[in-house]
Design goal:
Length: about 400
C-alpha cells in the first residue's frame, strides 16, 4: 500500500515559504550583531520573498551622493536707460561746431552714430533742428538724446598730480617749461603726460587743453589754453605761421656758416612697431610736405656746434630730420642720431667729467599774440641745468 502524501500542495512551496524565511531571519540577526543592519523596505518593513523558482531581484545600487550645487546668483537689476539731457553751452565753447560739441559730451560714442542722431533730428538746439556745422553760442540749450555709451575700458594708471615751472599764466593760458623725458599727453605706451598731470593738480580748472605739442625728448616752452576761445585763437596763429618758435640744438661737427635756410620736404610714416618715422624727400614727392627751418650759429666748439633753429613750419620731427639731412645730427637723438656717440656722451667720455643722457633740443623762445588783448608776447626758457653744464664744459675745453 502506498504512503499517503500529507499536505502535498503546501509541500511544494514549503522551501520558499518556511525554510527560506527562517534562514533569512537568522542571517539578518547575524548582520545586526555585526553592525550591518539590513535595509527595510519603505512600505512593508520587511524583505519580500520571491515565489519558488523565481530569480531573486538584484538589489539596487546605493545612490551616489551629488555634489552640492550652488544657488544661482541673483539676476542684477537692468541698468536704467539713459535719459534725455539738456546741456547749456558755456562761454568757453561759444563758436564751436555742434558735432564737435557732441563728440566731447558723448565720449565713447562712435562718430558715425553722433552724425546719425544729428541728421535724424534727435539733437536740437534751442528746441529746433540743427546741422552738424551749426556754430553754438553761449547760453544755447542743446538737447542730447539718450545714447548708450560703450563700457569703459579698464582704467589706466592714474596720473599723479604735478605742477611744472610756470613762465606765464593768466585767466586765458598757461606757458610752462616742460622737462625732457615727459610726454605732453598719454598714448602710444605712455599712461599720462603733462596735460593729465596738470588736470589732476588743478581739479578746479574747468577747461585745460594743449595748444601745441613737443616731442617727449624735447624740453622747453609749452602752451596750454584755459578757455576754448584762447585755444582757437592760438591754434589759428600756429596754423598761419604767425608765431616765432626758436630751439637750441647742439649738433655734431662744425656747422657750415653759409647754410642758413633748410627748405626740404618731409614725409611721415610708421614702422612695423607703430613708431613714427620721418624722412627727407624730393620736393615733388607725392606725400612730401614742404618744411622750412632757419639756422643760426650760436656758438662754435671744437667738434660740436650750438645752433638756434627757428621753424616756419611745424612738421613732426622737423628740426631733427632737417639737421640730420644736412649731415649734422643732434647730440643724444636716439632716433636719427649717432648712437655710438650718444653712448659716449652718456658715459661721460665725449666730454670728460660730464655725463649727458638726453637729446639736446630745447624750445627756448616762443613769440605770439595774446588771444584776448592782442599784445605781442615773447617768452623765453633758459637752458636746463644739464644742457647748460654741457655747454659750459665745451666752452672750457675750447678756452
Amino acid at each position: 500500500m502506498g504512503i499517503a502524501r500529507v499536505n502535498s500542495r503546501k509541500s511544494i512551496t514549503y522551501g520558499a515559504n518556511v525554510v527560506r524565511p527562517i534562514i533569512e531571519g537568522k542571517r539578518r540577526t547575524a548582520q545586526t550583531a555585526a553592525g550591518g543592519a539590513p535595509k527595510a523596505k519603505a512600505a512593508a518593513g520587511c524583505q519580500a520573498v520571491p515565489a519558488a523558482g523565481a530569480k531573486p531581484r538584484p538589489r539596487p545600487a546605493a545612490p551616489v551622493p551629488r555634489a552640492a550645487v550652488p544657488a544661482p546668483a541673483p539676476t542684477p537689476a537692468p541698468e536704467a536707460a539713459p535719459a534725455v539731457r539738456s546741456v547749456e553751452v558755456d562761454a568757453e565753447f561759444e563758436g564751436q561746431r555742434l558735432d564737435n560739441f557732441l563728440l566731447r559730451e558723448l565720449k565713447g560714442v562712435p562718430k558715425t552714430h553722433v552724425y546719425r542722431i544729428i541728421r535724424s533730428g534727435e539733437v536740437r538746439v534751442n528746441k529746433g533742428r540743427a546741422s552738424a556745422d551749426t556754430k553754438l553760442a553761449a547760453g544755447d540749450i542743446v538737447r542730447v538724446p539718450p545714447v548708450r555709451v560703450a563700457a569703459p575700458a579698464a582704467p589706466a594708471e592714474a596720473a599723479p598730480p604735478r605742477e611744472f615751472p610756470i613762465l606765464f599764466e593768466d585767466e586765458h593760458l598757461i606757458a610752462i617749461d616742460k622737462p625732457a623725458g615727459t610726454a605732453v599727453h598719454g598714448g602710444s605706451g605712455v599712461s599720462f603726460g603733462v596735460i593729465e598731470q596738470l588736470r589732476r593738480a588743478r581739479p578746479q580748472q574747468k577747461y585745460l587743453e594743449l595748444v601745441h605739442r613737443l616731442d617727449r625728448e624735447t624740453s622747453g616752452i609749452l602752451l596750454l589754453a584755459k578757455k576754448r576761445s584762447a585755444l582757437v585763437a592760438l591754434q589759428d596763429q600756429f596754423r598761419a605761421r604767425e608765431t616765432g618758435k626758436t630751439y637750441a640744438a647742439l649738433v655734431v661737427g662744425k656747422w657750415p656758416a653759409k647754410l642758413k635756410v633748410i627748405d626740404v620736404a618731409l614725409h611721415k610714416t610708421e614702422d612695423a612697431a607703430g613708431e613714427r618715422r620721418v624722412r627727407a624727400v624730393a620736393d615733388d614727392h607725392a606725400d612730401g610736405q614742404r618744411s622750412i627751418s632757419l639756422v643760426r650759429i650760436a656758438r662754435q666748439f671744437a667738434d660740436t656746434t650750438l645752433l638756434d633753429v627757428t621753424i616756419k613750419t611745424g612738421r613732426t620731427h622737423q628740426i631733427r630730420v632737417h639737421l640730420q639731412h644736412a649731415g649734422h645730427v643732434i647730440v643724444g637723438d636716439d632716433k636719427y642720431g649717432d648712437f655710438a656717440l650718444n653712448r659716449r656722451f652718456a658715459r661721460g667720455e665725449a666730454v670728460p667729467g660730464v655725463r649727458f643722457e638726453r637729446m639736446f633740443l630745447h624750445a627756448r623762445r616762443l613769440a605770439f599774440d595774446h588771444p584776448a588783448s592782442g599784445e605781442r608776447l615773447e617768452l623765453e626758457a633758459p637752458l636746463p641745468p644739464e644742457c647748460a653744464a654741457l655747454v659750459g664744459a665745451l666752452e672750457k675745453a675750447c678756452a
